[in-house]
Amino acid sequence: MEIIEQPPIERTHIAKWLAGAALGLGLWIALYSQLQPLADYGMSLTGIAAESHLGQALNFFLFETPKVLMLLALIVFVMGVIQTYVAPERTRQLLSGRRLGIGNVMAASLGIVTPFCSCSAVPLFIGFLQAGVPLGVTFSFLISAPMVNEIALGLLFGLFGWKIALLYMGLGLTIAIVAGLVIGKLGMEKYLEDWVQAIQAKGGAVMANFDHNPSWPERFQAGISHLKDIVGKVWPYIVLGVAVGAGIHGYVPQNFMAAIMGKGAWWSVPAAVLIGVPMYSNAAGIIPVVQALLGKGAALGTVLAFMMSVTALSFPEMIILRKVLKPVLIATFTGIVATGILLVGYIFNAVL
After folding, report:
1. Where are the beta strands (DSSP E) in the chain?
2. What's the pLDDT at 205?
């Protein structure tokens, strides 16, 4: 086979793009690792006490807003580059699982190894839709990623033992898989926002823009193009969603929740879900609250239903998703997942 040598000028051009990408990734990692110190420094400039309700809310906002935006930028860029290698049709075939729901199982299982809170999972959800992955499969990931990740399972194992962690994982994955299957069967793609439908109508294909094997600079340019397009549409919703979550994070009283989630009341599980939905946290942030609530006498099933609703069904997440989904699809998603969470709460309370 004849090896075609690239011209020196072209090799230099490619090397510059690769060096620029490496430098950009290094800067991204450096900045991402310093988000909490930067948020703390920003707090110190305000003069607001960090322990106050306002201080907790502001610190949360200063940390989570750049965190989610940076995750969104990185994931959308990477998805844009990946699409220059993998045809969207092949991705759909891999994850569709038309016969046995294999795509939903794969997507839900992927959520276990992605330690995202609900709002951080939305960027990857958008990236899946951008790549042409079926709607039901993307929802399986969106539900699983914040609810059943390695942080949640590790903390549950450390605090409550392997049986509780395993049962939580099994029931959480079941919710993610079944909810994704149901949404997929309902054929609700028409309830995606028009701009998302336009991406899917094109097949989500970056490869379609090339009639040849693209070079690295062309792949990076494709990623940058998607980055500008997607982030430009979504960022205001992310800021608004995190702002709502920050306000609730700083002002919701824990003792009030513990009183409502006491043992013996049939309505405690739905009440816990209703309380959890407006909140916003990741697994690492909510599990210490779970432990505190249990110490005050709250029922395990009720508290875990609360935890699931916070991590997988938060109101700030709904605000961000509104840019991607129409209200009918958001309501369907919420209803299906809430039903599954209620069942989990009642099952835990019945068997433990």
Report:
1. none
2. 47
DSSP codes, 314-325: -HHHHHHHTTTB
The string of pLDDT tens digits covering residues 258-307 is: 677 766 677 889 988 888 877 766 565 666 677 667 776 778 888 888 88
Contacts 24+ apart (CB under 8 A), 84-89: 84/206, 84/207, 84/210, 84/214, 84/218, 84/219, 84/222, 85/219, 86/131, 87/205, 87/207, 88/131, 88/132, 88/203, 88/204, 88/205, 88/207, 89/132, 89/203
Domain ranges (residues) in the chain: 15-351
Residue 108 CB partners (closer than 8 Å, separation 6+): 140, 141, 143, 144, 148, 173, 176, 177, 180
- What string of DSSP letters covers 177-226? HHHHHHHHHHT-GGGB-HHHHHHHHTTT-SGGG-SS---HHHHHHHHHHH
d(CA 205, CA 301): 44
In angstroms, the first-to-last Cα distance of the chain is: 67
Helix-, strand-, coil-residue percentages of the chain, each rounded to 5 = 80, 0, 20
Structure tokens at 88: 């969207």
**220 to 215, 310, 315: CA distances (angstroms):** 9, 36, 34
Beta bridge partners of 262: 298
Both tokens of residue 253? 């009283």
Q: Which residues have a Cβ under 8 Å from the Cβ of 69 and sit 6 or more positions away? A: 231, 235, 238
Q: What angle do CA 188, 193, 199 make, to 5 degrees?
A: 95
